[in-house]
Amino acid sequence: MRKFFALLMVLSLILTVTACGTTTGSNAPADKSAEMPKIGVAIYKFDDNFMSFVRRAIETSAKGKAELILNDSQNNQSTQNEQVDMMIAKGVKSLAINLVDPQAAPTIIAKAKAANIPVIFFNKEPDASVLKSYDKAWYVGTTSSESGVIQGKIIVDAWKANKDKWDKNGDGKIQYVLLKGEPGHPDAEARTKYAIDEIKAAGIGVEQLELQTGMWDSVKGKELMDAWLAKHGDKIEFVIANNDAMALGAISSLKANGYFTGNKYMPVVGVDAIPDAIQQIKAGTMLGTVLNDAKNQGQATFDLAFNVATGKDVLAGTKWKLDDKKAVRVPYIAITKDNISVAEEAYK
Question: Is 6 helix (H, G, I), strand (E, B) or coil?
């Protein structure tokens, strides 16, 4: 009997140890959130039309792969600097920063470098020397001049096809007004210069009636267009905008002043190909725009930020390529009524 009870105790002990091992072993439920890296993201302001679509693409790309700490910098660089400090304190493994002011890039890099955290800048490009100063810093965006060149080609092609109707004073020149983005912003400066240079290169004369900053904003675009119509009236032959938001503001003003009814028409071009602009092109109230591919910019930003957050090579497993300035360049595409489906596809 004693041997029997001893055997029972040994068996009981073995079962107890086995049971305890089951609760702490590989069969225990895993905490998926603990496995996902934290990535800190700052957007210069959430209510920017274009950046809202880039943000959505980043969020979509991150689902099930990373925990995002998203921040609205409210167009204030000091606020963004504080947000970067906060994200670093929360233990992010990488940063994705849409700068309020590109000149602040050295400050952000200094913070990231001190914490040994990689940083991906996107949409607003730091100076190449700044990116070069930190081996864990890269950029995702576009070639700023390309959008201006493409916008200029849209204008040239349309003017040549409609010169008899659009050249109101018959002088062979385009009398234009231009809504400029944020002064000093690389995209604003490049789009303003290269769009006009492309028109001139095609042998078309131009006369600038007005050029003022609308700060990428539709309300400001409308206010400026209201003032310009009051001042110049039918002398204006073309409206050129550095982005779609300002172009849409101008269209709102033009509609209020009787344009796009009957034979009263004004050609308006923008950049970005946001959904509202796509609808205006379909309706015939906007001539064209340039697709600034928010979907792919957001995807590329996340891909690079995720790779470096998980200790991989920045381009590992992606379709992206870096140029000699440590930048991924997402190409622009001209959009008119003839290929509107290309822009629509970018938002699916």
Answer: helix
